[in-house]
Design a protein that fits this description.
Helix 5 runs antiparallel to helix 7. The protein is mainly alpha-helical. The termini are far apart. The chain has 16 helices and no strands.
């Protein structure tokens, strides 16, 4: 493997280590032992859940191909997963708000374990069932756990600022370190131990079962709106009204869909972008490098969110601009640099430039996740948190299904250009969100100041 990849990986490792080991009291938030107990318990569970997810990711396509299915049939299986998340995600999210977030997290474990079990069958219908179950599980993963944490955090009376500590650590571990370890562990099972492509799914089921046992034994239950006279349709209407009546919630949903849509499109495009002529690239090592870049982003986010004077709405504008520029690099390099046209060989010069840009994008992803979680905790009403969060995923899943269905219809640079435009639009929406938030914050401060003056002006009575 070329030294270039080791230099990029080593450089990112050094920067992450430097950021983590040079944190001062200004970069840390003082918390209580009771909060730390909740945080550590959640981080263990979240890391196990993400290990169950990351172990499967690199081997889904490979397993289907080993069963003899072609690109078209595999594409249909992937579309089924995203379609299932879109159709059933809001339903299960509403059930989480009404029936309990702990139950929803346990349901995630059971559903995803069953999805892993279906991978043992080569039958197309069984695999399709597994994708449907996986889609439902994905919706729960990205809504129920966060909803449980936020509700439990406030129920125990902890400082809202402390949520950023849990969010940034969860992304640093779950979307960074755990992803890297899971990739290496999966490679050990499949290649080194030669246990076959189903082995990572069996390992994932084991981690999910361990996590479920911890949830069942240590977590308490919490709810959104548990009114007995409020059915699911009423919950949907309530969530829709909340989105329509509060511009901040609508903007947040649009920003999330635009960024995540670009992120999932990038997942499909980075391999052909770095090897347009069949260049030999170390896919697993590059994936680990991307996850390391994500860890770098989450480490930066923890420092940013530790400063009470620095608002999330403000610095996220810069994140979206950097993201848009990073995914525009393949378009720029294709216009400036003349392609060699030579088949095979090592990564090209333009590929090296793009890899650097992709690492910058992954660092932005690492900042995005804890930051969007923090904004959701501020703006989304508690009674319909899971429902609204899954509402946000509907346009995302529609977009990803369209991309999957038409992945060969558009040139790659058009797809990257589209993602860059989406991220620039996210920047504009983020700017609008900041203006609204600052305006409301200013009005609130003026109102408090007025009330204080009124109290001071009141005559004393004997």
């Amino acid at each position: 493997m070329e030294i270039f990849y080791f230099l990029v990986f080593g450089g990112l490792t050094a920067v992450v280590a430097l950021l983590e080991f040079t944190k001062t009291s200004r970069d840390l938030i003082n918390t209580s032992s009771a909060f730390n107990a909740l945080k550590n318990n959640y981080l263990v569970v979240y890391s196990l859940m993400m290990a169950g997810d990351w172990l499967q990711g690199p081997y889904v396509y490979y397993l289907y191909s080993q069963y003899g299915y072609g690109k078209g049939e595999i594409g249909q299986l992937f579309i089924a997963g995203f379609g299932s998340s879109m159709l059933f995600g809001t339903l299960v999210g509403s059930l989480a708000d009404k029936r309990g977030r702990k139950r929803a997290c346990i349901t995630y474990c059971i559903t995803y374990i069953l999805s892993c079990v279906t991978k043992h069958s080569p039958l197309y219908k069984v695999l399709m069932l597994g994708r449907v179950l996986g889609g439902i599980a994905t919706s729960l993963l990205f809504s129920a756990f966060e909803s449980w944490l936020v509700a439990e955090h406030f129920k125990r009376g902890f400082d809202p600022q402390w949520l950023s500590v849990t969010f940034s650590k969860a992304i640093f571990l779950g979307n960074g370190l755990v992803a890297i370890i899971s990739g290496l562990f999966g490679n050990l099972l499949v290649d080194t131990l030669a246990l076959g492509p189903v082995a990572p799914f069996d390992a994932a089921a084991c981690f999910l079962a361990i996590g479920m046992a911890i949830i069942m034994s240590t977590w308490g239950e919490n709810y959104g709106d548990s009114s007995e006279n409020k059915d699911l349709l009423a919950q949907f209407k309530g969530a829709a009204v909340a989105i329509a009546s509060d511009e901040k919630i609508a903007l947040l949903g649009a920003i999330q869909s635009l960024f995540e849509g670009s992120m999932y499109t990038f997942v499909f495009l980075w391999t052909p972008a770095l090897s347009p002529n069949g260049e030999e690239i170390p896919h697993g090592f590059i994936f680990a490098t991307f996850m390391l870049a994500s860890m770098l982003g989450s480490s930066i986010a923890s420092r940013l969110m530790a400063r009470a004077s620095l608002k999330v709405e403000s610095y996220m504008q810069i994140v979206f601009i950097v993201s848009a520029t990073s995914l525009l690099l393949p378009v720029i390099t294709s216009l400036i640099l003349v392609p060699t046209g030579v088949k095979g060989g090592s990564i090209s010069f333009s590929g090296c430039i793009q890899l650097g840009g992709f690492c910058a994008f992954e660092a932005c992803v690492g900042i995005f996740w804890p930051s969007i979680m923090k904004m959701r905790s501020q703006y989304i009403p508690e009674e319909a948190r899971s429902t609204i969060m899954n509402f946000f995923r509907i346009p995302l899943n529609i977009f990803v299904c369209i991309v999957l269905y038409n992945v060969n219809a558009f040139p790659m640079i058009v797809m990257f250009g589209m993602c860059s435009i989406f991220l620039f639009v996210a920047f504009l929406l983020q700017r609008r969100l900041m203006i609204i938030a600052e305006s409301q914050r200013s009005k609130s401060e003026d109102w408090i100041a007025m009330k204080e003056r009124e109290v001071e002006a009141e005559p004393l009575t004997v």
